[in-house]
Specification:
By secondary structure, this protein is of the alpha+beta class. It has twelve helices and ten strands. Helix 8 runs parallel beside helix 10, helix 9 runs antiparallel to helix 10 (326-351) and helix 10 (326-351) packs antiparallel against helix 11 (362-372). It is globular, with a radius of gyration of 22 Å. The two termini are 33 Å apart. It binds flavin-adenine dinucleotide. Flavin-adenine dinucleotide binds at residues 134-137, 142-144, 168-170, 220, 222, 371, 374-375, 377-378, 380-381, 384.
């Protein structure tokens, strides 16, 4: 892949172009070749991750989008969006360059008190620990309708007493704390009943029940956790009481842009692998790329990538300008997840049996693509949001913003 740009785009400054080129060299040259050992984890995986993180710092690629006052390099939102397309070429890219928690930082900066930011956010950006987990989804309630969450938090003197179960709390086993979403105000209207509370993972009553295996693997480290009479100080309330859903949206909106740019990196890499294979594999009297069906796969994939790229950059622009971003974000979330899935699926098909082996990165990319249609809201919920909003007579669709 080469890095060029023909049209001026917000955020695509000379500095960002230079960073994109350096990032590409690092991700393709160092991170992609280490993916297998990183995925296998264990001491070898941990050592490889630490080595790569040190190298990212040496190359000036660490925490590029985090604010300077928190120890980051202060790229603007739109600048980081362009970087994320390159970082996303490897599923491990964000971990390695200290940017996995970019969307958490946006939320923590808006809602965390100074004391909370110093205690949790500053060490996170420094890389002292890798993650702050988010506990919304529960095994016994439909996660796509969070008003059904059953976890409770009751104020007892100066402490919250929390009881409940969460699952798919990603990377909980690596996190020093989980931001737990719990019902604090059962008598309020449904969307004002819930609050976010910081729960350190070493608090008595907090149990990490298991890592949930997904599609035959545990590499995503999705935790199931149980909270039994967990007591944390009243001051661990995160943001205003009863405002959990508003708070979560400040993470989810930019987070979906970052996901979508990362998915572009995945799609572009799968596309390159597909073209390489089509150029060199010979069957039935011609190379694969000379066959009409395979040309269709290549052309359809190029169309998916280009469509997703333009839609995502436009949604990012709307966020950046403070516009009404809800429809634009839902559009890229469900359409982008489908494009991601389709492009990787075609690349696997062109590789034949090799495509589903661990000799190529495609099978791992495919698993991750399948999850993309569920996390941060399943496709159906995003389509519901789009249709419910756009059917209103006074709706302003993204193409009019
Ligand atoms: C890889 C991965 C990582 C995750 N990480 C986290 C995390 O860190 N923290 C966290 O809290 N959660 C996390 N989740 C959970 C995720 O947010 C939920 O899976 C998601 O919100 C859906 O909730 P659910 O699984 O309970 O599905 P349900 O709500 O039970 O929905 C099941 C299905 O019902 C259908 N459906 C739902 N609503 C509608 C509707 N209105 N119209 C039509 N059909 C509908 C859809 O097909 C949907 O897939 C993660 C999930 C995955 C897969």
């Amino acid at each position: 892949m080469t890095i060029t740009h023909s049209a001026a785009a917000p955020g695509l400054t000379d500095r960002v172009m230079d960073l994109r080129a350096r990032m590409l060299e690092f991700i393709d040259g160092e991170v992609c070749p280490a993916e297998r050992v990183l995925e296998d984890g264990g001491p070898a995986g941990e050592a490889a991750l630490e080595k790569l993180r040190a190298e990212a710092r040496n190359r000036g690629l660490w925490a590029l989008g985090h604010p300077v006052e928190l120890g980051g390099q202060g790229l603007s939102f739109m600048e980081f969006v362009h970087l994320n397309e390159i970082i996303g070429r490897s599923e491990f890219g964000l971990w390695v360059v200290g940017s996995m928690t970019q969307h958490d930082t946006i939320m923590w900066q808006r809602y965390g008190t100074d004391a909370q930011q110093q205690r949790w956010l500053v060490p996170l950006v420094a890389g002292d620990y890798q993650w702050i987990a988010i506990g919304l989804t529960e095994p016994d309630a439909a996660g796509s309708d969070p008003t059904q969450m059953a976890t409770t938090a009751v104020l007892d003197g100066d402490e919250w007493v929390i009881n409940g179960r969460k699952w798919f709390t990603s990377w909980a086993s690596l996190a020093p704390c989980v931001l737990v979403f719990a019902k604090t105000d059962p008598d309020a209207t449904p969307h004002k009943q819930f609050s976010a509370i910081i729960v350190p993972t070493d608090t008595p009553g907090y149990t990490h029940v298991r890592e949930i295996r997904t599609m035959g693997h545990t590499a995503g480290r999705h935790g199931e956790i149980r909270l039994t009479d967990v007591r944390v100080p009243k001051d661990n309330l995160f943001g205003p009481r009863g405002e959990a859903f508003t708070i979560a949206q400040t993470r989810l909106g930019p987070g979906r842009i970052f996901h979508c740019m990362r998915w572009l990196g995945q799609m572009q890499r799968a596309f390159e692998l597909m073209c390489d294979r089509a150029r060199t594999r010979y069957a039935h009297g011609s190379y694969l790329h000379e066959k009409g069906e395979i040309r269709r796969y290549i052309a359809e994939s190029a169309a998916d990538i280009q469509a997703h790229r333009l839609m995502t950059l436009d949604a990012a622009r709307i966020i950046d300008e403070g516009g009404d971003d809800r429809v634009a974000i839902s559009l890229i979330k469900f359409r982008g997840a489908q494009y991601l899935h389709n492009v990787i699926d075609r690349a696997i098909q062109v590789h034949g049996a090799a495509g589903v082996t661990e000799d190529f990165p495609l099978e791992k990319m495919y698993r991750e693509a399948r999850y993309a249609r569920l996390y941060d809201g399943p496709d159906e919920v995003h389509r519901m949001v789009v249709a419910r909003r756009l059917v209103k007579p006074d709706a302003v669709p993204p193409w009019q913003q």
